[in-house]
Amino acid sequence: MKRTNGWLAVLLVGLAAGPMPCWAWGATGHEWISGIAIEKLPESIPAFVRTPAAIADIAVMGRELDRSKGAGRTHDAERDPGHWVSLADDGSVLGVLPLDELPDTREQYDTLLRAKGFTQYKAGYLPYSIVDGWQQLRKDFAYWRAAKKGAETAVSAEERAWFEADLRLREKLTLRDLGVWSHYPGDASQPLHVSVHYEGWGPYPNPHDYTTKDFDAYFEGEFVRDNLVRSAVAAEVGPYQSCGCSIEDRTKTLLLATLAQVDPLYALEKNGGLKAGDPRGIAFTNARLAAGATAVRDMIVDAWLASADTPVGYPMVNVRDIESGKIRATRELFKGD
């Protein structure tokens, strides 16, 4: 009990010392992660997501959430904590809430943290940003599938035109939602964005004498831009792998895998591995960016597969029933008052 209280006291000191992190990878890193993820999608994903134009747009949209910062105090105070989560060395949020015990909603998450003297805004809520955006993407794909089938089975030219117009709108919305959301799994691949050691090691036990100076901006921005090659990152992204698990579990796995790289990153910095041209730093950062692109790509495929069993319309019907012909898609199903 005394050990826990001591750990909490150190965390409170760290939280009071300064603002929490707001940036993960710089523009270059995020563009690479999002663009490479789309390039690595299998052909089973609809073609409108995989066109050269879509790849170019999604790559740029991958950094949009950083570009929007500074929009206003209300905007930033609400959204910035969605880019990170402060995990203690044991993998729990601020040392008080194990990842395996994360509830379904941010409201429940915040309630649990407040009972421990924290809030979601002090802890960060990156896991929820990832899951929330993924659920929207799954829904986007579901409506696209329904609209496509509706156009194919329309009983009149007017009905077909309505579904074709809706299909075009669905594609625009899907690309936008996918591109902007892809930023968050990218954030989750940056070790300093999932750890309490985000701006130097901080006021925590430091037996390896790691730096207490902030090197986050240099690592994620200048080092990536000046030392890495996009093709080398892309080469490390293998084929899609199903985890046979929920998006919540896939997200937790990503966060813990990234957290495991915090100590190696600090050791790398201590030993000079982040100096310009150092192959150790280049190899490490290539792997981190590739992990981000892999996560984005795998989650997109998961969302597409899950969309087949997603309800749409009102009253809601399962997309699988529409695609199988059990239920015919009509305009009334999607625009009934």
Describe this structure in words.
This protein has 337 residues and is mainly α. Helices cover 61% and strands 2% of the residues. The chain contains 18 helices and four strands. It has helices spanning 2-17, 27-39, 47-50, 52-61, 64-67, 73-79, 106-114, 120-123, 126-152, 157-181, 183-187, 216-227, 230-235, 247-259, 262-270, 279-307, 319-324, 331-335; strands at 92-93, 97-98, 311-312, 317-318. The protein has a two-stranded antiparallel ribbon. A two-stranded antiparallel sheet has the order 3-4. Helix 9 (126-152) packs antiparallel against helix 10 and helix 9 (126-152) runs antiparallel to helix 14 (247-259). The longest helix has 29 residues, at 279-307. The chain is globular and about 70 Å long. The protein starts with a helix and ends with a helix.
Mean pLDDT: 93
SSE pattern, N- to C-terminal = HHHHHHEEHHHHHHHHHHEEHH
Structural class: mainly alpha
Task: Give the strand order of the largest sheet, numbering strands 1, 2, ... along the chain.
Answer: 1-2
